[in-house]
Each structure stands twice: as C-alpha cells, then as structure tokens.
Amino acid sequence: MLAIRIPIRRRKAVALATAAALAALATPTLTAAPATATTTDYDTTYYKNAIGKTGTSLKSSLHTIISSQTKISYSAVWDALKATDQDPNNSANVVLLYSGVSRGKSLNGGDLGDWNREHTWAKSHGDFGEATGPGTDLHHLRPADVQVNSVRGNKDFDNGGSSVSGGGGSLTDSDSFEPRDADKGDVARMILYMTVRYEGGDGWADLEPNEKVANGSNPYMGKLAVLKQWSDEDPPSAFEERRNQVIYDTYQHNRNPFIDHPEWVEAIW
C-alpha cells in the first residue's frame, strides 16, 4: 500500500487543532450565574437612588439612604426586641439568636436562664459600647441566651470549633464563633448592614469587614468570605423580613437593604 505523506506544516496544524478540541472537551468553560435580582415595594421610593448601581457607588447610595434613622436609647432596646423578635407561634415569647429557643419576654436580664441584648457586631470592635447610635441599632441587636451570648463574647465569625452548650448547633473556638445554620444568613446581613451604615462620618468608627479573626478593638469584623457564603446559603426568612419591617415601621424607620436585596452583598463585595 502506498503511504500518503502529509506535509509537516499541515501535520502541526492538525495536531494543534485536535489538541485544542480535546482541551475544550476536557475543561469546559464554566460561567457563574449572577445572583438573582429581587424586587420590593420600596424600589421606586426608599431605594430609588440605589437601584441599578454596584460596587462603591451602591454602597455609598445605601449609606446615605439608611443613615436617615430614628435612634433609640439602650434601655429602650429591651422593649423593642420584645416586638421585633416576637415568636410568631407564641406572642408571649421571643426567639433567641444562636440557639433558636423560644423564651418568655419577661425573662430579660443577666441571670442564668435569662436572655439579654446581643451585639452581633461586637461593641468592642470599634469601641462604641452601648452609646446611642451603633450601640443601640436594632438592625444588629438580638435577644440571646445569657450563657450563649457570653460564649460568643466579642469573637469574629468563622466556620469551625466545638459545640456550644445550649447553642442550638453553634460552634466556637478560641477566636471565632459559628452560629447555627438557621441564623448564619441573619448574622451575615446584620454585620454587612453595620459596615454600610457606619462609615466614620458621624463621630463613630468606620466599621468594615475583613478576612481576619481576633480583630480585638479594631473596627473590623471577619471573615468577609465566610459571611458572604452564609448570606448566600441562608437567604432571608419570613421571620427576618418581618423583623426588618417592624424596625422600619415602628422604631428606626430605616431598613436593612441586604434583607430586601440579598444580591447586593455580591454586588458590593
């Protein structure tokens, strides 16, 4: 049989084309789907100056929008939490952050078995304490079991650790705290609300998320990548949405934009 000789140049071209085709089959191009955009009744009014923006422009617009708020005293937070976190199945109780326990509204205080006011953005991170403003902002204050709250302390948020007694599945280690799955998105959206609301222009520290733990008294809270993951995996619940509405209607008259538009987390960070 007569062998057919293919010119070297053509053989190289064929080989390259074949390799490219095989590579395309072996490693297909993957395109991440963008977060689904949501719409709310407030898009044409409350959020009208933020719609369509991304990045720093969106963050700046949201800061201006949510900074218009009515501030309450720290003592007034007790009664406010009894309304914002009321158990939908028992109006005499509140639902506790981290543990998910339903506990009597009257059991607020500092003793064993009581619930107290948890600063999700730890008040030492930026040293604002309990002062009217970031220290009394209901969008990051939640009722929590006294002991579980003490275990959380001022730790940053991250995955991992050992089980927290009475924590409903929450975990902790020496420098971080992981809420139970049902509260992870809530925590993330509260932290990110604080970073947008408090930008350093009203006498308080500029609060920002970062990728660290053990931030101490610095005005930072980690870890951002983990918080973003939690927000994505645990979208806003009916309880969280009702809470946002009660704060807006009755107390502060501002909203947590990441509850209304969870896709804005990715749009900014």
Model description:
A four-stranded mixed beta sheet has the order 6-9-8-7, with no helix packed on it. A three-stranded antiparallel beta sheet has the order 1-2-3. It starts with 7 loop residues before the first helix and ends with a helix. The chain has one domain. The protein has helices at 8-26, 55-66, 76-84, 146-152, 181-197, 224-233, 238-251, 257-260, 264-268; strands at residues 86-87, 90-95, 102-104, 115-119, 141-145, 156-157, 162-163, 171-172, 176-178, 208-210, 220-222. α5 crosses α6 (224-233). It has 269 residues and is α+β, with helices and mostly antiparallel strands. It is built from nine helices and eleven strands. The radius of gyration is 24 Å and the shape is globular.
Summarize the structure.
The protein has 269 residues and is α+β, with helices and mostly antiparallel strands.
Task: Give keywords.
single chain; 269 residues; alpha+beta; four-stranded mixed β-sheet; three-stranded antiparallel β-sheet; 36% helix; disordered N terminus; TAT_signal; nuclease
